[in-house]
Amino acid sequence: MDPLTQGTLGAALPQSLSKSHTVAGAGLLGFLAGMAPDLDVLIRSSEDPLLFLEYHRQFTHSLIFIPLGGAICALVLHGLLGRRRGLAFHQTWLFCTLGYATHALLDACTTYGTMLLWPFSDERFAWNTISIIDPLFTLPVLLCVLLAWWLRKPSVARVGLVWALCYLGLGLYQREAAVEMGRELASSRGHIAEGLEAKPSFANILLWKTVYAHDGRYYVDAVRATWRPKVFAGNSVLKFDAQRDAPWLDLDSQQGRDIQRFRWFSNGYIALDPQHPNRVIDIRYSMLPHEIDPLWGIELDQQAGRWEHVKYVVSRDGGPDRATIFWEMLVSP
């Protein structure tokens, strides 16, 4: 999720469990601690462009790391904020730990993937119930956090938590409806849908991207679930096969290993970009939910040395036309 949402939910939980005289301090400490796990984005390398993919949402997001993460935040923030607000260290640690604890669980509700069980497992949990940015989720919780601070009433923060849980529950309901629509669409094509998933499109839980595999291809479509249900047919692309798509590639080279790292990050949803013959893409993400056009991928180089890494590429040029199309998909009859 975006930093504001992470901080907001991180503030709401300790506020809801605080007293009236500590609600301000609880909210501030929880807000900062709620954003802290994403400091792992600083772990990157100019030589290895995929290093940050391996470490983002890794150990700092593990459930077992929560008490330690809260303690680190408390050590940093107690002297700066906690003591000045009349809190004992154990109170600072509690509020920081509660704020820190919300982060990974909220991230796991998105589609990116979060290693909740590190170091025991490198599985990336993605429950696909909410977009990484969703104002309808964030703004009501933020309002409750600010009112709880202003009125010195922890009960108001509890209202924000109830809203958050209800919205995530609605996202789960919408996801299941979208999956069912995707299954019916595949059946209408005579396909046996393998690994069918539905993922919320940007900033809403109404319009969903569905992805499934059949006969060596990935099929990408969009569906509007529950409210005026509608299918927006997309396209398909062959699954990536190194022997077919990059026969020149030595799989034991660094580029070959980087493909496997990118495959793990993408949960296997990789294909060769139809527009760029040497680019391997993650088909889970696109500006429009029924498109294959990727937000990111890796660029292969036939002239690269054995130990040279791939190039990580990002494409997020949506343009006004795509924004208009996206809006029409949301509201069209």
Automatic annotation (TrEMBL):
**Keyword flag Cytoplasm:** no
Q: Keyword Membrane on this protein?
A: yes
Q: Looking at the Swiss-Prot or TrEMBL record, what is one Pfam family this protein matches?
A: YdjM
Gene Ontology MF annotations:
hydrolase activity
Write down the InterPro entries for this protein, in alphabetical order. Transcription_regulator (IPR053170), YdjM-like (IPR007404)
Which residue ranges does UniProt annotate as crossing the membrane? 59-81, 93-113, 125-149, 156-173
> Per UniProt, which keywords does this protein have?
Hydrolase, Membrane, Transmembrane, Transmembrane helix
**PANTHER family in the record:** HYPOTHETICAL MEMBRANE SPANNING PROTEIN (PTHR40031), MEMBRANE-BOUND METAL-DEPENDENT HYDROLASE (PTHR40031:SF1)
Q: What is this protein called?
A: Metal-dependent hydrolase
Tell me the organism.
Halioglobus japonicus
